[in-house]
Each structure stands twice: as structure tokens, then as C-alpha cells.
Amino acid sequence: AGGQLVLGIETSCDETGIGIVRGGTVLANVISSSMEQHARFGGVVPEVAARAHLEAIEPALREALAVADVRLSDLDAIAVTAGPGLAGALMVGVGAAKGLALATGKPLYGVNHLVGHVGADYLVDTNAPDRAAADDGEPTIALLVSGGHTSLLLVRDLISDVELLGETIDDAAGEAFDKVARLLGLGYPGGPGIDRAAADGSPTAIRFPRGLTQPKDLAAHRYDFSFSGLKTSVARWVERQTDGAMEVDVADVAASFREAVVDVLLGKAIAACQDFDVPRLLLGGGVVANARLRAVAAERTEAAGIALRIPPFSLCTDNGAMIAGVGARLVAAGHPPSALGFGADSSLP
Ligand code: KG4
Ligand code: ZN
């Protein structure tokens, strides 16, 4: 297949990702995660993540070049996540990318991490079982749910027109899974543990609050999310049970909590599809691994006549291929490279 040969570097959180694409095809997607080093802290520790990137980035680069069977001199461009993310973590990737660009003379592109997530669905990963990519050129609503972000985007054009409709005003959805899992003693990361426990529970056992869905909230926060109230509500419920010497039914709590998160995420995403008359919904981010989220998304989008797009899981979580993919599009669209002086911007809009 033809297209631009682009290297992508992703270090915004705890995954060191090096991807290589040719046009819309993934040739290599090497990921080295420092997740295990954060487990005992119950969340990503920025300093630990940055040091891990520094150690992992060079071997990951060598591996990606070997897997793709290309040399640095073959590249048309280098792309790197410029933000948003953890400042120290981002700096490792941006520094490495600048060094490579200087040494090879290749053009360098700073890429927005969130645009990278959306762009993942426009790639064909020939190594993934579910390899279909869908770029029909039509606008789409994108819901990005991970440990670091919960964002609803209107994507009219991946490169030139991505509008942030709303985002979490406190915890990210994945963060809520991690915190509640910790509370219930289900380990870190929390999502998989909650999923396992919830399989034996009832989603309607406890009615936990749906953040920012009351009429008074909707006026200012129609597409925003809030999960810290939900987390507190779960904590209080567990406390009350324990104080009353009642047994905590972990399965019911997990299932009911998960239901509240899924309900709000999809309710708002589908409302956005309807408000903007865009009958397409794309899901991305680590929380997309959630079994209930996937099932309810399929049900509700079908009922609403909305086409659902979920990239293969290897492209849902943080990875370098999605950054390389955006880079390839930037090159193809004739965008000038970023000036070498650009920095890492932890709060890049
Ligand atoms: O995208 P990701 O791998 O990394 C970033 O945060 O960028 O997402 C990690 C998050 C964690 O908070 C984890 O608990 C959550 O994704 N997660 C899940 C599941 N698997 C991972 N959340 C819900 N259900 C899951 N099965
Ligand atoms: Zn991410």
C-alpha cells in the first residue's frame, strides 16, 4: 500500500508507544507500559512514568523499526504527542522526537493526543483481529474514555475541525473505576476488576447518582461529565452497610456503579449525536474494554439508528500508531511541520 511512512511517538501517560504507519496502515505498534510500577500507588505517578519512558523509549523504537522492517532514513516524517498529558512524561517523547528529527533531518509534527485517539479508527491494523477502519469522510461524534480523559468531541474533519463539546469537570471515567475498585478491594487498574465482580451482580440493585444529568445541570453542562459525586456516593453506601453491620454485596455495588457510569456516558454521547444530527458514534480509550459499556453502546445506538464505531482494542488504549496516523494525514494534507522549538503542553486544548 502507498502513503506516507511516518513514525509516531506517544508518552503522555504510562504507555511508551512507538508506532509506524504507511498512510492508513499500521506497520508496527510497540507499547511498553509502566502500569505495574504504579499499581501499589493506586494510580499513575507522574515522576515514575517519566523515568519509565526514558528507559523504554529507545528499545521500543528499535523494536518498531525491526517489526516494520524500515530504517529511520526511509521515514517521510516523525510525529509526537505534544499534549495533553503528564508534563514530565510528554517531555520525554517530545525530546526524543526532536533529537530524531535533528539527526535525520525529517520533518516533525506535534500531535494532539485526543485527535490521535479519534484518528485510531481511521487506521487499518493488519495485526488486529478486528481490522476494519472506517473513514467515510462523514462527521462523527467521538467519546474518549480513559484513565486520563472523558471527552465528547464533534469531529467534522480529523485534521482541521475537531470541536470539544464537553469533558469531565472532575474525575475521568477510568479514574472513577480505579477509585471505586480500590474502595471495594478489587485491585488496580480498576476497570477489569469491576467488570469481573459486576458479572454476578444486579445493575439495578442500587440507584447511584448520574452526574450532571439534572435539568439544572444540563443548561451549562449538557455534554460535560462528573464522576466524583458518584464515587463519594458509593463510598457512603459501603460505609453505611459496614456501620450497620450489614454485608457489602460487592457484586451488586460493582454492577450498579458500572451501570451509572455507562448510563451517563452513552446518554450524553447519544444526545450529542441527535443534537448535531450526526448519526455516527466512535468510542476510544481504555474504558472501552468495559463489557457493559460495549453491550449497552451496541443496544442504544442500534435503537437510535446511530452507527457505532469501535477501533480494535490495541488502538483504543494509548499507542504510537494513532499518533503516526495523524502525522501521515498532516503530511498528506500539505501541513507545514511544527517548528522545532515547540514544547510539551500538558493542558493542550
Ligand atoms: O486508555 P488507557 O489504557 O490509559 C489512559 O488512561 O490513557 O485507560 C486506562 C483506564 C484505567 O483507568 C482502567 O481502569 C480503565 O481504562 N479500564 C477499564 C477497563 N479496562 C481498563 N475501565 C472499565 N472497564 C474495563 N474493563
Ligand atoms: Zn489517551
From TrEMBL:
GO BP, sorted A to Z: tRNA threonylcarbamoyladenosine modification
Primary enzyme class: transferase
Binding site for Fe cation: H113, H117, D318
Enzyme Commission designation: 2.3.1.234
Record keywords: Acyltransferase, Cytoplasm, Iron, Metal-binding, Transferase, tRNA processing
Keyword Ribosomal protein: no
Main location: cytoplasm
Amino-acid positions noted as binding substrate in the UniProt annotation, renumbered to this chain: L144, V145, S146, G147, G148, D178, G191, D195, N290
Segments forming domain Gcp-like: 25-324
Reactions it catalyzes: L-threonylcarbamoyladenylate + adenosine(37) in tRNA = N(6)-L-threonylcarbamoyladenosine(37) in tRNA + AMP + H(+)
UniProt remark on cofactor binding: Binds 1 Fe(2+) ion per subunit.
UniProt GO MF annotations: iron ion binding; tRNA N(6)-L-threonylcarbamoyladenine synthase activity
Pfam families hit by this protein: TsaD (PF00814)
Localisation per UniProt entry: Cytoplasm
Cofactors required: Fe(2+)
Matching SUPFAM superfamilies: Actin-like ATPase domain
Any Gene Ontology CC annotation: cytoplasm
Family statement drawn from the similarity comment of this UniProt entry: Belongs to the KAE1 / TsaD family.
Role noted for this protein: Required for the formation of a threonylcarbamoyl group on adenosine at position 37 (t(6)A37) in tRNAs that read codons beginning with adenine. Is involved in the transfer of the threonylcarbamoyl moiety of threonylcarbamoyl-AMP (TC-AMP) to the N6 group of A37, together with TsaE and TsaB. TsaD likely plays a direct catalytic role in this reaction.
HAMAP family cross-referenced by the UniProt entry: TsaD
Protein name: tRNA N6-adenosine threonylcarbamoyltransferase
Originating species: Naasia lichenicola
Species classification: Bacteria, Bacillati, Actinomycetota, Actinomycetes, Micrococcales
Gene that specifies this protein: tsaD
